[in-house]
Amino acid sequence: MITVSNLNHFFGQFHALKDINFTVPMGTIAGFIGPNGAGKSTTLRTLAGILIPTSGTVELDGISLFTHPLEARARMGYMQETPILYRELKIREYLEFVAQIKNISKSEYQDRVQHIMKRCGVAHIQERLIGNISKGNRQRVALAQALIAKPKVLLLDEPTSAMDPSEVIRIREFIRELKSEMSVLLSSHILSEVAQICDRIIFIRDGEIRYQGSIQEIEAIIEKAHQTVALRFADPVEPFMQRLQGLAGAQILSVEGLFVKVLIEDDTQFYPALYKMVSEYGVPLREVVAREHRLESLFSGGSKS
After folding, report:
1. Which residues pair with 244 in a beta bridge?
2. Which of 130, 164, 192, 208 has its CA 20 to 30 A from that of 106?
């Protein structure tokens, strides 16, 4: 289990993490999502023991990361978004090196390395230099090193970002299999990936946790709070853009040709205002298309819940 309580981090005067609280139970994959600069990597680097927070506590598999750091980190595997690997070593040599520094006995580590290379799909290229393999395969090697010591907590930062589509499918299936063995916290910008493999979502924005819960729970919150529609017009919208921006109960998200994407915040105000604009001012509206509620709408807003 991962337990994060009242985590705060300052970089000088900048408050990067603001009272972060969440848990990831054993047997759960949690998707950690948010816009660029929201605090995802800072949180993961703190959980990995790379950054020391200003205040707060982190427990990994019931062990305090800050009072018993070596014991806690021995229970954790971490895969960075941009893996730092020894490019001059062969894949097998590198993983054997990692196994040794993680105190896996010599009688055990060779079998462990062969097993994890097979699981991560790099056994067939194990004698190649890391510097000569593709970015996707380097990410597989990084995943293998994170798993080599059989961790109870796995931290994954953008684990499939450099992989081709066929690799992504296999790795997603592999990550799903891992949840029976550990707690997984996965950071990703690929929201379809999060929806497919995660049990829970933790959404961070401006250093604060804004939403957390199951995907179904969060989409229900989004649907209740907001509705996105596309307005299609017969003519270009520029001449009446000022009237559109002044519509009550809504905000304009984007304008593309004859289409205007609108986030409805109060439909009891929006639809009467839209009808008035069309009937009184002759605005050439042709169609109103409701959009399906998706996780992507978290990135265009984000009130606390």
Report:
1. none
2. 130
CB 176 within 8 A of CB 196: no
The first and second tokens of residue 29, run together, are 């994959």
- Does the structure show a pLDDT above 50 at 286? yes
- Distance (Å, rounded) from C-alpha 212 to C-alpha 48? 21
pLDDT > 70 fraction of the chain, expressed in percent and rounded:
92
Residue 11 token pair: 């970089």
- Residue 167: its pLDDT value, please? 80
Cα 241 from Cα 304, distance rounded (Å): 30
Alpha-carbon span 198 to 179, nearest angstrom:
10
Whether pLDDT at 226 is above 70: no
Q: How far apart are CA 175 and CA 219, in angstroms?
A: 23
* Structural domains in the chain, sorted by start: 2-221 (3.40.50.300), 226-300 (3.30.70)
d(CA 152, CA 1) in angstroms, rounded, equals 8
Q: How many CA atoms lie within 13 A of 214 on its CB side?
A: 4
